[in-house]
Amino acid sequence: MLAATFMETFKIKSSSWVLFILTLMTVLIGGILLAIKILPTRNHPGFTLPIVISVLVIAYFATKLTSIAVIEVTLTEKTIYFKWFKNYLFESNSEWTINWTDISEYKFQRDRNFDLLKFKLTDGKIFRLWHNNGFTKDDFYELVSAFEKRVLYYNESKSATTSVIKRGKTIYETTGGLVFAIIGGLFLIATPILIYFLPSKSHVNWGGFVLAYAGGLFFIGQVIYFRRKKADANK
Fold it and tell me: How far apart are CA 74 and CA 9, in angstroms?
């Protein structure tokens, strides 16, 4: 049980997955096309690998500039306070304050690339914090843990006698998620068989295949995890 009066502060790096993808694709496509047009890669194939590596490095750091926001989140007895130290590109947030009594629902959803912590308020407004879980060191998961503990305390307290903060379903817990997992499982079984019988495997995009396969396994694993968790809770 948490103390009635407390304050915890976390510094996180929130990500805009839209800006991340747009920045990545713009730099990769633009950089490669520019390199092909200007640099002598055709007559000097030795230049190709260094150019590709350089474009990838530039793309990685470009996403840091455009799609990362640095936010300090403070949990108190009555509010959640957000202070922005760095914004996403084209945005100018400075601070948010959300009262616990104004939150009707929250959801924390894990993903292979971008985790999501979402708050739904009683007036219908929705706040989303996306988090790139690759190469990002911050307090995001500590924040999620502390937030969920605080929700539990709030729901058990007298202030929540008329309303509680509900936990929203992740996509893995929905009927649509189950259907997608079944279809994905059939795809994961069928694809290697189809590749095996291909007359020529030289045109197979093995990199894309591995990424798609890993993504499918992650999704199916999450569906199984939440189904088992629900079954254990109902015992």
Answer: 4
First to last CA, the chain: 25
Task: Compute the distance between CA of residue 159 and CA of residue 101 in angstroms, rounded to an integer.
Answer: 8
CA 122 – CA 107 distance, rounded (Å): 15
How is residue 185 written in tokens? Answer: 């499982």
* 160 CB-contact burial (10 Å; exposed 0-12 / middle 13-18 / buried 19+): middle
Compute mean pLDDT per 10 residues along the chain, 235 residues long, and list them.
71 93 89 71 64 84 92 95 94 91 93 91 93 88 95 78 82 87 86 74 66 82 82 67
Between β-strands 126-132 and 166-167, what pairing exists: parallel, antiparallel or unpaired? Answer: unpaired
Residue showing tokens 């903060």: 165
Strands, E assignment, the chain = 7-15, 68-76, 79-86, 95-99, 103-109, 114-121, 126-132, 166-167
Predicted model pTM: 0.76
Print burial letters for 55-94: b (CB count within 10 Å at least 16), e (below 16).
Answer: beeebeebbeebbbbebebebebeebbbbbeebbeeeeee
